[in-house]
Amino acid sequence: MDALEYVDVLFREYLLFRGFRDTLSAFDKERLSDKSNGFQVEKIVEMCFNHCHNYEAKELLELWQFLDSRFFSRLDGRFTDSINKLETSLMRYYLVHAVQTGKIEKVTEFFKLCGERLISKADDWSNWFSLPYVKQPAASSLFRVYFSREWAETLSVSLRNFLLEVFQNVRLPTVLRFNMERLHRKTLELELEALRSECLRLQGLLAIRGQEGTSLSSFDSDRVPSGSLSMAFDDVSGAEKGEVETRASPSEETGEHTADVEQRGILHADAPGLSDSTLQSEQGIGQGVRRGHGAGEAPDQDLTPTDDLPHGIGPEEESAGDSAHVTMQDWFSGHSGAITRCRFSSDGLNVGSSSLDGTVRIWATDRGMFSKRNATIYCGVKVLSLTWDAKANRLLLLGTEKGGLKAWNVESKRVMCDVSVDGEHPRILDLACSPLDNYFVSTAVSPEKTSLVASRSKCTVWSMRTFKQLHTLPLGNDPGVVRSLCFNHNGKIVAAAEDGWVRLFDVNTRANILHWQASEDALVTAVKFSADQNSVYTLADDGMLCEWSLHDSARCLSCYDVSQYCASPSDTMTRHEFALFSPPAGKKEHVLCTSNTCNAPLMILGNEQGQHVKAIGGESSYGSITSVDWHPSNPVCTTGTSSGAICLSELGLSK
User: Fold this and answer.
1) How far, in Å, are 165, 247, 460, 505 from residue 478 at the CA level?
2) pLDDT digit string, tens, across residues 490-508
């Protein structure tokens, strides 16, 4: 159903190829008058309410009769009560709106049009015929509930969810099923190619180990399953069939090994070039490589400068105080484009990642445990922003470069919302959810012209329940580009990074309570509140990470230079960002940044001997670090790369 627009294009091309121009004209004419709006739920719901708001009772009844005869009549009998209740509620909404706007004559016309049919219905309509003659119906016990805003919002959500359920269960014609199978086959081919590349990389590592004199016979035969080495390095066909792989860790000298169990998920398939709202569900597989270290071992990732780093770029010498080393790394592959966002869920059990290839994936952080939330969502266009519903941990919000705003329910594995934002500001650069309240904020910019600076932003506050716009945040008459958003601990204040400025807004009153210039020549690309909520951290594209006091007129408290890592963003990196982690009491705050190299700089703030920088990350073949995030409670971070790979790194923190 979601590939309908793509199939329509193919059908038009076929008619032109055959020369059936009269049929093509009739086809285009009927598409323009299609009451189902291409099975786009948002447009159908909008049309229903527009008929109510424009007092078009006849058109409203005709639209509902079309839906009933075309779709509802084919459903099971268990849906009959829901259909009748929605029809009754929609009619009553029409009457309530007419009374609220003072159009009593429209109420009378409605009863003349369908009064006889309403009397014969099982629903209690007898009291409603007195509605035009009640002086204050909103205060009447019979009608009070229907005049409330909550009832109208509930009707909108119920109608939207019901239509989504209906369209997802409609039997598809053969041509649509054929397209789904084609897309599924293409996805499997991409994953097979990724597995082959991974196998070649592991074979290269094995050859290097052999040259160094490492013998595979040093493995403890009691601890290594029979045939595991051949499965990991030689048997490509086993990976093609999706078999369980057991791969040796790099620490072969100690006889350590770990088993790599494939990450499985639900594929949500779509064709390239489809509309931004296109989504379809299928089965699929993700894959990865795990590297482990025993207690007390040095991490596999060398934190000293390597040949993969540009000249002069490398971590500073360690100073006294906290230190960090990688104890475990887990790699996931599945995206074919650069990662734009990778974010932990609020419970830390899942990671959501988005990519420039138009896909969004949900991974389980524990590879040994299958998660029913695992999924891949194909959006058809570049996905620029992603965030989790911080309160309920059920929704994953996505923002695309063409104005698509989606809410994916990880429990039911379906789209709860698919709306289009303001056409003048289609590129959704960032999303932020309130940690306590049912709303979120988006920043969207106008299309690029000569440079990103020439664009203009719009920050919108949305309801998490209805997915409707509540209000916009005031950015002035000549707004810049807001690249990053962040809520404080109670969700009342949101920080916005606008060009070289930082602005703090009260979300409820829309007041700009504080603003300051964080950089004169550079653009602020990321902003975060500190753990104690007394300061704000900013990262600019000149590589300066600064801390600003919220109690001393935004005075700069400290600055850290990571320009060796964080140069200007490239085509595969939409912006540089950072993530904060607060270890247990007595340990210093850790900051992890994106990087133009294969190593992400890890800084330990407040070091008495100066800046303390180490690097985590990994393989130069995976490219630069494009996105970072911390586990909500454990010293585990996730890094996204320009090659589309995701890495989970567990750190050992010691005093």
Assistant:
1) 43, 56, 16, 17
2) 889 999 999 899 999 999 8
